[in-house]
Specification:
725 residues, 26 helices, single chain, Rossmann fold
Length: 725
């Protein structure tokens, strides 16, 4: 159960018992149903009738997938995509928590959960737990083997107490019995019907076994039992040593240090306490813990959210060092990252799971070409059907008028062809469709209808154009600007020179902590420069999207549960916009109807909050938008829609981002897929002279990258080569 409710799972179960088969590393589940049952509210608890309560909870269940197929093959790398709110994180949690009946119990699963509460990270260790200790202690399977190994070694080497070996063996057996009981309890809860009845019988038997094991812990062993237990202890110790040697336990600390270093932890931070880390560094810590574990399935939910480009490229290269037997499932809004690390794509859409053997870009290209092919096929067939219908009507009319039976038979024959032979002209393999081969047995119609797939991406965004300046001039001009936090400290930024005109596209890239956000605060006037001058156009309207905009809205929602997107925008505009104008702006960004006016801010998803934050930026129709890490909390469909909207925006843009696709699309002007620029958005002559520049902020200075994002990416690859993978 989570804060949103409990996850309920059912599926078509296999007749084979795969619980103890360690060789099975695949997941092959048919008829999978996953839903979330919200936690009963206070008003629900007052319902006296049990049947009414059960009925209301079933009605309120939110379906994630229905009769889907979940197939994860050993050693394959999958990219899971889907719109915000479709349930990607819920699906991953159901896998990691082993809520799906039929999953091999022997599978070792490592999971990076983006929805984890920050306080849970601290609660998992003591106040003195260091970053390195947290990573080493997070592998529960390895720690259990080590604990059993140390317990047996100490008992066998203890010459003063002959019964210590017996106590150690019974303690280990008891813990294993408890694990089996936990599994039996879960199966009894998840399974239904005849299998559920059998699972409940097994649970009763396990309860008896646990009781006997508990009693055995208190019994005194006989001399023969001591000898037998000692022999079994020696054999078990040998098995544990073999397993630990296969896991290369001695190299685990070196591996943990290497992973932490690759993710940006320096030597000082590796030895620091976990509770002293900020939220972003805690999420990096969770990622490091997942990567350092020995796992059969590695599940990463938005691993790039808090990484700079160096960390992202390091993670891409680290995937190459992971065992070829490890299955990897990744959810990410970073298109370039998914293309680099995933060989297959899983699409969560319409409560089903679809599979495509290829990268995300290959899937997009295949989807567009197939959609175009089916669209043309349908248009051609619609014309053919229209022509045949006219011919049939004319033949019937002439046949009845002249009494010509041939005309009537011809009309009947064509009508039969129209009814039976219209539809898909090709089979699933792309060959010519044949009824006796492609649709054997009884069926309602001979051919499936041509269905043109709808676009998977979310609603397109469109930004209102910037207001007129009335007279030309640079929007922002920075001349030899420097900044330091304290009078005696060193300059964080020095000798910054930057000029931005209407229509310009300025991208700023760099490593985390190099001062990008500080530079944006200087531009927006939130911070004053130590040296140099910053001048702005007298009529400049500027909009600023902070990297913490979503968190600020979430905090506002918690403080005021009645605040909605519409009421917030009305308050922000101070009466400058009417309710209709506010609804129009929110609607252009995809926040429509009751979502804008009735749903509290606290209940909006991360993607919806990004749209609301943009509405707060755009209501004044700014000449310059300053955007700091806008892709966080978004799925890749929304990132694509946002990139298209920003690329056609009439005003100027200053964008800080680690997302390579966003920089290339918005700042460098690359056009993706079949997207075309709207010439109507460029009616101002100043836009024709717009400049596209990518700057790198390094060592406090701003440098123009002549080759844009590609140049920065190559620099990070060279830097990454110095880090051990």
């Amino acid at each position: 159960m989570d804060s949103q409710g409990s996850i309920q799972v059912s599926c078509r179960q296999t007749r084979f018992d795969i619980k103890q088969d360690a060789a099975i590393k695949d997941i092959d589940i048919n008829g999978l149903n996953i839903s979330i049952v919200p936690i009963a509210s206070h008003s629900d608890s007052t319902v006296s009738s049990k049947s009414k309560l059960v009925k209301s909870s079933k009605t309120a269940a939110i379906e994630i997938v229905v009769q889907a197929e979940l197939k994860l093959k050993r050693g394959h790398r999958y990219g899971l995509i889907g719109r915000n709110g479709t349930g990607k994180s819920t699906l991953l949690r159901a896998i990691s928590d082993r809520l799906i009946p039929g999953m091999p119990e022997s599978l070792k699963i490592a999971f990076l959960d983006q929805t984890i509460n920050q306080t849970d990270i601290i609660n998992n260790g003591s106040s003195s737990t260091t970053v390195l200790q947290y990573v080493l202690e997070s592998d529960k399977y390895r720690n259990e083997l080590l604990s059993q190994h140390d317990l047996l070694s100490h008992a066998l080497n203890d010459t003063t107490d002959a019964l210590s070996v017996v106590r150690a063996m019974r303690h280990i057996r008891h813990n294993r019995v408890l694990n089996e009981f936990s599994y039996a309890e879960k199966m009894a809860r998840l399974r239904s019907g005849a299998r559920g009845l059998q699972a409940r019988k097994e649970l009763v038997a396990m309860e008896k076994k646990v009781s006997e094991s508990s009693a055995l812990l208190l019994e005194d062993p006989s001399p023969s039992m001591v000898q037998q237990e000692s022999q079994e202890a020696v054999e078990l110790l040998s098995i544990l040593q073999s397993e630990l040697e296969m896991m290369r336990v001695t190299d685990l600390e070196a591996k943990a240090r290497m992973v932490l270093s690759g993710l940006g932890f320096n030597s000082e931070r590796i030895q620091s306490a976990v509770h002293a880390l900020s939220g972003g560094w805690r999420m990096r810590l969770l990622l490091a813990a997942a990567l350092a574990k020995a796992s059969d399935i590695l599940i990463l939910d938005e691993p790039t959210n808090y990484l700079d480009l160096l960390g992202i490229i390091w993670l891409q290269k680290y995937f190459d060092s992971i065992s070829s037997d490890t299955t990897i499932v990744v959810v990410s809004h970073d298109r370039s990252f998914l293309n680099a690390v995933c060989e297959e794509t899983i699409i969560l859409s319409d409560k089903s799971l679809k599979y495509f053997r290829g990268t995300l870009d290959e899937y997009d290209e295949d989807f567009r070409s197939r959609r175009l092919y089916l669209q043309r096929m349908k248009e051609a067939q619609d014309k053919q059907i229209e022509h045949m219908q006219k011919t049939i009507q004319n033949n019937v009319k002439m046949g009845k008028k002249t009494g010509d039976d041939n005309k009537l038979r011809q009309a009947k024959s064509r009508q039969k062809k129209l009814d039976d032979r219209m539809g898909m002209q090709v089979n699933a393999k792309g060959g010519r469709f044949k009824v006796n081969r492609d649709m054997p047995g009884w069926h309602d119609s001979s051919r499936a209808q041509i269905e043109v797939p709808e676009e998977e991406r979310e609603m397109h965004m469109k930004f209102p154009p910037a207001t007129e300046l009335r007279f030309p001039g640079p929007l922002v001009s920075m001349e030899n600007v420097s900044f330091r936090y304290s009078r005696g400290g060193e300059d964080v930024l020095h000798d910054i020179n930057l000029v931005v005109h209407l229509g310009d596209r300025v991208g700023i890239v760099g490593l985390n902590g190099c001062g990008k956000s500080t530079l944006l605060k200087l531009i927006t006037g939130m911070t004053t420069s130590t040296k140099g001058s910053i001048t702005k156009h007298p009529r400049l309207k500027m909009g600023y999207y902070s990297q913490h905009s979503v968190e600020s809205l979430q905090e506002l929602g918690r403080l005021d549960m009645t605040c909605t997107a519409l009421s917030l925008l009305l308050e922000k505009s101070g009466g400058s916009l009417s309710e209709q104008e506010c609804r129009g702006l929110l609607g252009m960004l995809g926040v429509v109807g009751n979502t804008a006016s009735a749903v509290p801010i606290a209940k909006l998803s991360g993607g919806q909050l990004v749209r609301v934050a943009f509405a707060l930026v755009l209501w004044e129709r700014p000449h310059l938008m300053v955007l700091d890490e806008v892709t966080t909390h978004l799925d890749f469909y929304t990132v694509t829609a946002l990139s298209d909207a920003l690329a056609t925006y009439h005003g100027a843009l200053i964008v800080v981002s680690h997302d390579r696709y966003l920089i290339r699309r918005v700042i460098e002007g690359e056009v993706s897929g079949d997207v075309e620029e709207d010439e109507d958005d460029h009616d101002d002559l100043t836009v024709l002279a717009r400049k596209y520049t990518v700057h790198r902020l390094v060592n406090g200075t701003l440098k123009v990258l002549k080759d844009g994002m590609g140049q920065f990416e190559k620099a990070m690859e060279r830097k990454c080569a110095s880090l051990t993978v």
